[in-house]
Specification:
With 325 residues, the protein is α/β, with parallel strands linked by helices. The chain folds into two domains: 264 residues, TIM Barrel (Alpha-Beta Barrel); 37 residues, no CATH class. It contains 13 helices and eight strands. Helix 7 links the parallel strand 6 and strand 7. Helix 2 packs antiparallel against helix 10, helix 6 packs parallel to helix 7 and helix 7 runs parallel beside helix 8. The two termini are 36 Å apart.
Length: 325
């Protein structure tokens, strides 16, 4: 598949999806202050960001509400308290995990909600359930996406079958998700080509959500966009689970569309992100995340290793290596 665009050009189909609250919430159990969220909302508007993902629509039956901040559950009233009528160009998104969302009770008609897009996160083996959720959300009036998680663990045959099923559904967007930060640009090119073939066949849009375990989240994101992927996930200062994600400030600095502006993001980092780091909140590239990414493993062991302030990297590497044997 031929690349689209050049370094000095911009494509009007590109959309930036800010996931700072949703993916960053995995760092602090979603305990963001209202000031933080309101300021990020205003920052995204000023920066020209296209979507802001507030968090999850998690089941209150499965998760203890007292153990998480409000953005684990994204009540419509809580979002409305931040955005009001959201009379702006910024759209609002939330994520709903297959099997972890009471979608029939917690996702209401779009006409009565401040939310614009519901993104359904799924693994290959739960694609039918994801499609059921998408069909429900589509009927309620929402834009929809399916994020196929841990795609680096999927074989080509299963992925081809999954993409064909999703392509025939009513979903609007399909996401490449490098959950473990294990993929390289060459692999992203191949995956993007595969996804874009389905997009062309069924009139869908393709997105990418990258993790930074091997310091490739930004590189993989721009590699995908050069192939024709148009929905680009990012977080301010890469804030996200473990090694974090593609940094919004890198992405905005790269894109040539004059609608995007870097200065508001930098002001937000100075006001909000620097204090979080000073207070000891941990995320971002580090050796333990490099190792789980290199071995294509979930970062849970690396997160525990980091939280324990361990530095016995060689021991940890052999522990991870033995898990695959």
């Amino acid at each position: 598949m031929q690349k689209k665009g050049k370094l000095v050009s911009f494509r009007p189909d590109i959309k930036i999806v800010d996931c700072t609250i949703r993916d960053g919430g995995l760092v602090n159990n979603f305990f963001f202050t209202d000031e933080f969220v309101k300021d990020l909302y205003q920052t995204n508007i000023k920066s020209g960001v296209d979507y802001m993902e507030f968090g999850y629509k998690a089941s209150k039956e499965q998760f203890d509400v007292s153990q998480f901040g409000k953005w684990k559950f994204c009540n419509d009233d809580d979002i409305r308290a931040i955005v009001g009528d959201n009379d702006t160009g910024l759209k609002i998104s939330v994520m709903a995990d297959v099997g972890r969302t009471d979608f029939r009770t917690d996702i209401i008609d779009k006409a009565n909600s401040p939310i614009d897009m519901i993104r359904v996160a799924t693994y290959i083996n739960t694609i039918p359930s994801a499609i059921e959720m998408v069909e429900y959300c589509n009927a309620k009036g929402y834009e929809t996406a399916i994020n196929i998680m841990a795609v680096s663990k999927s074989n080509d045959m299963d992925l081809d079958d999954a993409l064909e099923l999703i392509g025939r559904s009513c979903v609007d967007n399909i996401y490449i998700v490098d959950s473990y930060g294990s993929l390289y640009p060459e692999q992203i090119r191949r995956l993007a080509s595969k996804y874009l073939e389905i997009a062309d066949k069924y009139d869908k849009r393709i997105g990418i959500h990258a993790h930074n375990n091997q310091q490739l989240a930004f590189a993989n994101t721009i590699e995908a966009l050069t192939m024709g992927v148009s929905y680009l996930d990012s977080t301010v200062s890469s804030m996200g689970r473990g090694a974090g994600n593609c940094a919004t400030e890198l992405l905005i600095g790269f894109l040539k569309n004059p609608k995007y502006h870097l200065s508001p993001i930098l002001s937000f980092i100075e006001k909000h992100i620097v204090p979080l780091r000073k207070d000891g909140l941990l995320w971002g590239y580090d050796i333990p995340y490099l190792l789980t990414g290199r071995l294509n493993q979930h970062p849970r062991d690396a997160i525990q290793f980091t939280n324990e302030h361990r530095t016995d990297y060689k021991t940890f590497y052999h522990f991870l290596y033995d898990k695959d044997c």
